[in-house]
Specification:
The chain has 200 residues and is α+β, with helices and mostly antiparallel strands. The chain has helices at residues 6-31, 143-199, and strands spanning 35-37, 42-46, 51-53, 56-58, 63-71, 74-82, 87-89, 97-99, 105-107, 116-124, 129-139. The protein has 2 domains: 35-140, Sandwich (Immunoglobulin-like), CATH 2.60.40; 142-188. Keywords: Glycoprotein, Membrane, Signal, Transmembrane, Transmembrane helix.
Amino acid sequence: LMRPLQGSRGRSVVVGTVTLFLAAGWALQTSSGVSLVVPQPNINATVAQNILLSVEYSCQGVATIEWKHVSSWGTTSIVEWRSGNYVNISMVYKDRVTTFENGSIQLRNVGMRDAGYYFVTVMEEHGTNAYGTIIVNVYEIIYEDLHFVAVLFTFLAAVSAILICFMWLCNKSLHLFQKKTTHKLTASTTEEIELETIEC
């Protein structure tokens, strides 16, 4: 008998919540005076990058825009503001979020925990709402591994250069030694020939 993993159960809850939000948003949007467009529902980013969660809304009256982040770590409120009025940014995102008049937000310096679902709700003052969802995937660049490879490559290049110089010096020394030995042999052979000549 196989038991489902705890992580997959949590993922199922998140997917179920997303589906419920989307269905509710679609049902309410059809009868409301608020329209919301999400041009890029899927965003891929790398760690430390800035991302734009882009939306475009229109409504008859004054709108309140709210953004929430849902991931395996839970649900976090990011920001809520009224068009032309106050902006209430969560303490967790205080220095990382910029809001735009069209309802979009920019998230600076993303990390792995920023991956997940981003829900935007546009609420009209007369009580009609519109909903949108953006999925953000964050990938990590492993700088430590790249740094290690670069250092290792530099070290191996330096060792290779030293070995090549050492082999060249050994080769030079061997040639000098052979020349001296050949010269000595030639000199001793000449002396022997001279001695033999004298003895004769």
